[in-house]
């Protein structure tokens, strides 16, 4: 287990869709341990594998409890309730912008033993699930911003 450095916006690994995990070997077990250790710090809600430089479909979360999921996919989002609060990202440090997300999200994937994992939540947990699956698809929350806010965010990035 190791506390891993976070890749910052501009690193190509953050814009590359992650590959599915087809075999759970020692490398994947170490990845999960590292994801859990690295996300288990104050102020961290979620962490995708590519944020620590690994292009595999896995993420961890730290909202109400600590957990992980392999090969996650969003299977349900509320289509009539939304949240518009500020969102931040470990890979986009110090910047928070209003980001529209579904109020409820449900993700399905597997654990290290191949068992089905279902993770769902409202509010912050729903935001976390959507945010981390976006990472695994090569997206940043900045891509979800409305046009004017995105312009403001890109200007702010240049000052970091």
UniProtKB/TrEMBL annotation:
Keywords associated with the record: Hydrolase, Iron, Metal-binding, Protein biosynthesis
Record-level GO BP terms: translation
Active site positions: 132
Catalytic activity: N-terminal N-formyl-L-methionyl-[peptide] + H2O = N-terminal L-methionyl-[peptide] + formate
Keyword Nucleotide-binding: no
Pfam families: Pep_deformylase
Enzyme class: hydrolase
The protein's Enzyme Commission number: 3.5.1.88
Cofactor note: Binds 1 Fe(2+) ion.
Cofactor(s) listed in the protein's UniProt record: Fe(2+)
Regions that span the bilayer: none
InterPro entries listed in its UniProt record: Peptide_deformylase, Peptide_deformylase_sf
GO MF annotations in UniProt: metal ion binding; peptide deformylase activity
Residues where Fe cation binds: 89, 131, 135
Function: Removes the formyl group from the N-terminal Met of newly synthesized proteins. Requires at least a dipeptide for an efficient rate of reaction. N-terminal L-methionine is a prerequisite for activity but the enzyme has broad specificity at other positions.
Family affiliation: Belongs to the polypeptide deformylase family.
Protein name per the record: Peptide deformylase
Organism the protein comes from: Salana multivorans
Gene for this chain: def
């Amino acid at each position: 287990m190791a506390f891993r450095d976070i890749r910052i916006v501009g690193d190509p690994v953050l814009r590359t869709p992650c590959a599915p995990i087809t075999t759970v070997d020692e490398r994947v077990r170490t990845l999960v341990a590292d994801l859990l250790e690295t996300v288990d710090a104050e102020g961290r809600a979620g962490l995708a594998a590519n944020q620590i430089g690994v292009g595999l479909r896995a993420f961890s979360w730290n909202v109400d409890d600590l957990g992980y999921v392999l090969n996650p996919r969003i299977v349900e989002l509320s289509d009539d309730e939304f949240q518009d609060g500020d969102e931040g990202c470990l890979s986009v440090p110090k910047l928070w912008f209003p980001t529209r997300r579904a109020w409820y999200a449900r993700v399905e994937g597997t654990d290290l033993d191949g068992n089905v994992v279902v993770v769902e939540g409202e509010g912050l947990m729903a935001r976390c699930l959507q945010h981390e699956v976006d990472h695994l698809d090569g997206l940043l929350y900045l891509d979800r911003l409305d046009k004017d806010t995105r312009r403001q965010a890109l200007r702010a990035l240049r000052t970091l």
